[in-house]
Backbone:
């Protein structure tokens, strides 16, 4: 829940209920530090990296010992004096030195084999522990935790935002059966009864997503709204999360300028919990143009920033497509009403 308060600097804001957070961890387990620290092994980096150098030194000592032995035998037959004894002694020293190196090399090899076996065993255990689970089974097993997403009634008297009808056409294009798109769902509580702009629901899995569209100010009064410092929106988001809904907040600018991209974001959020055969795909004839973060993300606003936007009337600038759509819709509705009267 703390993320609801922390991650509110940019739109879209996306928050997940606890039941789905647990499922996310099971589907994509985060690798915790305590599970991945290998036990300390008494072997030095120097010995590991220079084992080949030890072998070279061993070969050199053997060669020198052999040469010394040959020379000593030659001197013995020629001079038969103390030089022979000293060379024999040096040869023996070389022989014992190479035996010591041989013993050290074998010891390092054994330590490396043990380390390798530990790594193999750890990799196997981790792979076994984190075998991906079936998303559908996890959702079905947790249905009860999200039953409250149905505790609503449709509020016909709710005031519609100017961009809602426009965005609804895109939602219908992207989210077809088994998905249901519900408008103005009023949820009941003792003291708090919020109404969601849109609720997207999959009845098979009790998977619900609350879609909110935030405007920086009201059209008529130019009153700043949806302020980042206003805690009432945090309370609202927590309410829907406790019901078991995912919460996605878009800035109105994003809905007006990039409606397909907003739907793509919702699809990506939901696809985390769906198997390949159930994943939401991009609709036919829909072209998604890749956007840079600075094009797509919208900074949340303070009271002063909303006042500046209201004075500049920025909503009039980015809502042109929405207004055109609403005008055509109004014309079509008028024609349909006239046709009904004639008939």
Residues:
């Amino acid at each position: 829940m703390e993320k609801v308060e922390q991650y509110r600097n940019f739109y879209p804001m996306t928050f997940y209920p606890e039941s789905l957070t647990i499922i996310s961890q099971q589907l994509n387990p985060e690798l915790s530090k305590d599970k991945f620290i290998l036990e300390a092994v008494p072997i030095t980096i120097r010995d590991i990296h220079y084992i080949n150098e030890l072998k070279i030194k061993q070969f050199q000592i053997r060669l020198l010992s052999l040469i010394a032995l040959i020379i000593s035998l030659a001197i013995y037959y020629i001079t038969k004096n103390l030089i022979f004894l000293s060379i024999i002694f040096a040869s023996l020293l070389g022989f014992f030195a190479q035996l010591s190196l041989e013993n050290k090399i074998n010891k390092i090899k054994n330590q490396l084999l043990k380390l390798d076996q530990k790594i193999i065993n750890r990799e196997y255990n981790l792979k076994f522990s984190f075998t991906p689970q079936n998303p559908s089974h996890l959702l079905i097993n947790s249905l009860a935790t999200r039953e409250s997403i149905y505790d609503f009634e449709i509020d016909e008297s709710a005031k519609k935002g100017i961009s809602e009808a426009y965005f609804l056409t895109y939602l219908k294009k992207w989210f077809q059966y088994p998905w249901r798109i519900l408008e103005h769902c009023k949820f009941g509580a003792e003291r708090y009864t919020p109404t969601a702009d849109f609720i997207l629901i999959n009845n098979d899995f009790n998977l619900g997503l609350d879609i909110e569209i935030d405007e920086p100010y009201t059209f008529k009064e130019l009153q700043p709204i949806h302020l980042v410092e206003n805690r009432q929106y945090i309370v609202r988001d927590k309410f829907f999360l406790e019901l078991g809904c995912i919460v996605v907040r878009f800035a109105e600018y994003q809905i007006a300028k990039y409606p397909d991209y907003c739907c793509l974001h919702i699809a990506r959020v939901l696809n985390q919990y769906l198997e390949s055969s159930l994943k939401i795909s991009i609709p036919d004839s829909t072209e998604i143009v890749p956007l840079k973060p600075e094009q797509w993300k919208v900074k949340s606003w303070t009271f002063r920033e909303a006042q500046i936007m209201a004075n500049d009337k920025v909503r009039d600038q980015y809502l042109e497509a929405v207004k055109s759509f609403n005008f055509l819709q109004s014309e079509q509705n008028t024609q349909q009403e006239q046709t009904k009267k004639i008939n």
